[in-house]
Amino acid sequence: MADGAVSENVVTTEILGDVALVCIDNPPVNASGHAVRVGLVEAIEALNAAGEAKAIAIWCAGRTFMAGADIREFGKPSKPPALPDVFNVIEGSAIPVVAVMHGTALGGGFELGLCCHARVAIAGSKVGLPEVLIGLLPGAGGTQRLPRLAGIPFALDMSLSGRQVPVEEAAQAGAIDRVVTGEPREVALEMARAVVAGDLPTRRTDQIEAAYDAEALAEAKAAAQAKTPNLVNPGKCVDAIAACNLPLPEGLKVERQCFLDCMETPQRAGLIHAFFGERAVSNIPEAKGPSREVQTVGVIGGGTMGSGIATACLSAGLNVVLVEVAQEGLDRGVATIGKNLDGAVKRGKMSAEKKDAALARLTPELDLDALAEVDLVIEAVFEKMEVKREIFGKLDGICKPGAVLASNTSYLDINEIAAATSRPSDVLGLHFFSPAHVMRLLEIVQGDKTAPEVLATGFALAKTLKKVGVLAQVCDGFIGNRILAHYGLCSGYLVLDGASPQQVDRALEDFGFAMGPYKVSDLAGLDIGWMTRKRKAGDRDPAERYAGDIPDRICEQGWFGRKTGKGYYLYDAGAPVPNPEVAEIIEAVRAEKGITPRDFTDQEIVDRYMTAMIVEAARVVEDGTAKRPLDVDMVFLFGYGFPRFRGGPLHYADTLGAAEIVARIERYAEEDPHYWQVPDILRRMAAEGTSFADLNKA
Ligand code: T1G
């Protein structure tokens, strides 16, 4: 079976009397890489050939039982034995095999348990089938063995949700035979002996019939299609489970084909790019240096952002001093924090006790002097440079030496803010995304003088808050908002030239966005963009086609979107409906500008919108505002609702190829050569045949 390779002793066997312990030790999570697969086959075949052991226990060293296939191997030529073949050898062992699971036995790890003849788990551990979250389905017997052990509904729940299930719950469903306490190796020895003594019954799944449940399968298939129309793998997963009424070898063949069908999809590549990107984005030297201890955070401003940031800090166990200028604003901020925490309790994200403890760590204050002893300050007040500089000037005199001074500004120049203090090295940007206690993105903005230790403190805070910290350099809008400003023009031009806001929204929602740009604008508040356009009116580039006439007219009516019940859509009748008066405004503006509206296909809307996003994203990488393409991808996945299965704007760009993108820009430039310009980086990539994935590796 094995290809003759000798495993790098990631799998070792201990013979103890009439039992054998097979240990997998492949840090960091015992993923079933090639050496593990070879080692497992060698170990089981050798024990069966020797014929001395009366029971075998498989356990894992380190913090967790096998956490699945090694997803770094995906997309590369697979090296035998494939995991399903390994598990068939184990299930076919004449000597009974018991799995002892601890930590998080996920994917192929849980499937390793399922192919054994008995499954034991250490209390408090979890099992899961998260393959659906990376564009796949359980591909090593999970869709065939789990229904036989625990029924089709439970198998559908686990494999379609990808959730981690407490082993106690899995035991109740029949997927695990026994939950014990103890250390993995000792439990393995005890359980192997229990098998020999007949105290732990064993069963082979190829001798168990699954109770067929056609109704559950049909419901799951319909739900998968409705919930994730863009994804292939959930439906394929149901198809595989539906084959569990065939003899096991037949069912395994169906599963394998369904799995391979998913392995080839771009969505699998996108979801795995997202998985690794989330870890790689803050795995950088700037995040690794020594950082300053943060126990107490001062938050200035109790508005939406300030109270959201305070909520995030309190929920992460930090103390918070919330400062507002007036009692009314302070009370409002405290009330918003309470509401945010209540929401977390309602959603089961936090216990009531934890909520009370969090609130007990909140100190509302009306005076900046209250920040004298905090470790880190996050200023979240009005987006006006003068206001921020005044506050930072005061903080300079109030805060203790070594306190980190951060601004939550979403686009203002951190260097200018830092210059208002005598300690610019302690200053950085911490740009949260609203709602700050929910959105996981945190742009960490490095000022020219920001000390390495202060930058590392920003990344340490991101980790404490369970956020995805992304390094950004100073520019107008940093990474995300700068790119948004560019492609926002594109959606404005689409409406000026003939598309309706609703068509643009629908086309992009079909592409995978949870919400189209016009629904997002209505949600955020149209007045925000209006203020920005007015702020920039003075330095507007005359060569740039103005896309603000329509939203300006809408705002002049006092229609700011959801918060006023009226914007691009009307919100008083439940689901948003297009605002007919906006259609009149669009018509009037087109007439005044002498525009003859033309039809756009949904595909052309997506192509233009995504090309505009890619253009500015490429520039952001080219000028170093973002460290790598994957940094831009993570900003959009965790801050802008970009469809995760597409991996992010620049991962998506790679699916088109630089040459195709350049050709599109040049085609669009015939209408508007100012807006549509090819960035040098894209022209170079097209000429060299390179990709953004290549740049990520550089
Ligand atoms: N393969 C390769 N590397 C992995 C890995 C995996 N499956 N899981 C984690 N890592 C790396 C990760 O990149 C990081 O590396 C380090 O381990 C610590 O991870 C046939 C086909 C297990 C809950 O989807 O959910 O089995 O950055 O930072 O927060 O049906 O990792 O240190 O270099 O996340 O303690 C199914 C994915 C695979 C599990 C631990 N399994 N992993 O979380 O640590 S498909 C998964 C996780 C499959 C079969 C199918 C989490 C964790 P580095 P970490 P953590």
TrEMBL record:
It is found in: Peroxisome. Residues 296-472 form the 3-hydroxyacyl-CoA dehydrogenase NAD binding domain. The keyword Zinc does not apply. The keyword Nucleotide-binding does not apply. Keywords: Fatty acid metabolism, Isomerase, Lipid degradation, Lipid metabolism, Lyase, Multifunctional enzyme, NAD, Oxidoreductase, Peroxisome. Pathway: Lipid metabolism; fatty acid beta-oxidation. It catalyses: a (3S)-3-hydroxyacyl-CoA + NAD(+) = a 3-oxoacyl-CoA + NADH + H(+). GO terms for molecular function: (3S)-3-hydroxyacyl-CoA dehydrogenase (NAD+) activity; enoyl-CoA hydratase activity; isomerase activity; NAD+ binding. Pfam families: 3HCDH, 3HCDH_N, ECH_1. Residues 477-571, 605-689 form the 3-hydroxyacyl-CoA dehydrogenase C-terminal domain. GO terms for biological process: fatty acid beta-oxidation. In the N-terminal section; belongs to the enoyl-CoA hydratase/isomerase family. Belongs to the enoyl-CoA hydratase/isomerase family. This is Fatty acid oxidation complex subunit alpha. It comes from Pseudooceanicola marinus. The lineage of its organism: Bacteria, Pseudomonadati, Pseudomonadota, Alphaproteobacteria, Rhodobacterales. The gene is fadB_2.
